[in-house]
C-alpha cells in the first residue's frame, strides 16, 4: 500500500510541476493553456481512478489474494477538484 501512496503523491507533485512549468505564476499562462494543463491533470486522475476500480474488482473476485485499501486517493481527488473549480 505504501508504494501506491507514493505513486499518488508523485502524481500530485508532477501535476503541480506541469501546471507551473515555464512560468513563475500559473496565472501567467494564457487561459487556454492553463485550462489545457488543468484538464490534463484531471484526465490523469480519472485514468488512475479507473485503474484503481479495475484492480479492486479483480481483488474482490479473488478473496484469497492480498487485499489493499486505497483511501489515500482523496488527496489526488481534492487536488483535481480544486483545479476543476478554478478552470
Labels describing this entry:
single chain; mainly alpha; 74% helix
Describe the structure.
This protein is mainly α and 87 residues long. The protein has helices at 2-20, 31-61, 73-86. The protein has a domain at 31-51 and 73-87. Helix content is 74%, strand content 0%. The longest helix has 31 residues, at 31-61.
Brief summary of the model shown:
It is built from three helices and no strands. The protein is mainly α. It is elongated.
Number of helices: 3
Please estimate the helix content. over 70%
- Please tell me how large the radius of gyration is: 15 Å
Structural class computed from helices and strand pairing: mainly alpha
**What letter string, H or E per element, gives the SSE order?**
HHH
Outline the low-pLDDT stretches.
none
Strand content is under 5%
Q: How confident overall, as mean pLDDT?
A: 80
**Annotation, overall tally of beta strands:** 0
Distance between the termini: 32 Å
Biggest sheet character: none
Q: Choose one word for the global shape.
A: elongated
Secondary structure topology:
Blueprint: H1 2-20, H2 31-61, H3 73-86
Amino acid at each position: 500500500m505504501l508504494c501506491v501512496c507514493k505513486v499518488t503523491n508523485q502524481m500530485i507533485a508532477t501535476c503541480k510541476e506541469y501546471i507551473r512549468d515555464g512560468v513563475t505564476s500559473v496565472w501567467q499562462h494564457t487561459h487556454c493553456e492553463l485550462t489545457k494543463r488543468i484538464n490534463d491533470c484531471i484526465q490523469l486522475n480519472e485514468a488512475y481512478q479507473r485503474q484503481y476500480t479495475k484492480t479492486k474488482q479483480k481483488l474482490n473476485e479473488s478473496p484469497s489474494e492480498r487485499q489493499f485499501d486505497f483511501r489515500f486517493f482523496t488527496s489526488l481527488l481534492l487536488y483535481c477538484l480544486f483545479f476543476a473549480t478554478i478552470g
